[in-house]
């Protein structure tokens, strides 16, 4: 095997590895966890303004919806994946920002 073919094979393997890692990270963020930044001090003293939290979506299940319908201001049906547990005392829950119908 010549040196050029060897380098080409290494680059192909590296590109495939990076592609697989991006897909895995996207799927993990979609179904398993996501991160948020606390925008205000309304949760003090437990959470301070600017804190970052990691949300476990596997407890109650990830929500899936049609993004393109939401972008077109159509009615969106939200489906929830099955979860693996229930909330416990002192868990921090993350809610959506209130939706306004007349934008």
TrEMBL record:
CDD domains: Peptidase_S24_S26 (cd06462). One of its GO terms (molecular function) is serine-type endopeptidase activity. Residues 14-99 form the Peptidase S26 domain. It holds the Pfam family Peptidase_S26. InterPro entries: LexA/Signal_pep-like_sf, Pept_S26A_signal_pept_1, Pept_S26A_signal_pept_1_Ser-AS, Peptidase_S26. GO terms for cellular component: membrane. It is a single-pass type II membrane protein. Keywords: Hydrolase, Membrane, Protease, Transmembrane, Transmembrane helix. The chain crosses the membrane at residues 12-31. It comes from the Bacteria. It catalyses: Cleavage of hydrophobic, N-terminal signal or leader sequences from secreted and periplasmic proteins. Its EC number is 3.4.21.89. PROSITE patterns: SPASE_I_1. It is found in: Membrane. It is an enzyme of class 3 (hydrolase). NCBIfam families: sigpep_I_bact. This is Signal peptidase I.
């Amino acid at each position: 095997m010549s040196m050029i073919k060897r380098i080409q094979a290494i680059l192909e393997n590296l590109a495939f590895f990076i592609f697989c890692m991006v897909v895995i990270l996207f799927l993990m963020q979609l179904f398993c966890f996501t991160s948020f930044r606390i925008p205000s001090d309304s949760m003090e003293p437990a959470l301070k303004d600017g804190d970052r939290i990691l949300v476990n979506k596997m407890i109650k299940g990830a929500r899936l919806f049609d993004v393109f319908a939401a972008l077109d201001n159509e009615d969106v049906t939200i489906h929830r994946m099955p979860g693996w547990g229930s909330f416990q005392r002192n868990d921090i829950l993350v809610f959506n920002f209130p939706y306004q119908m007349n934008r």
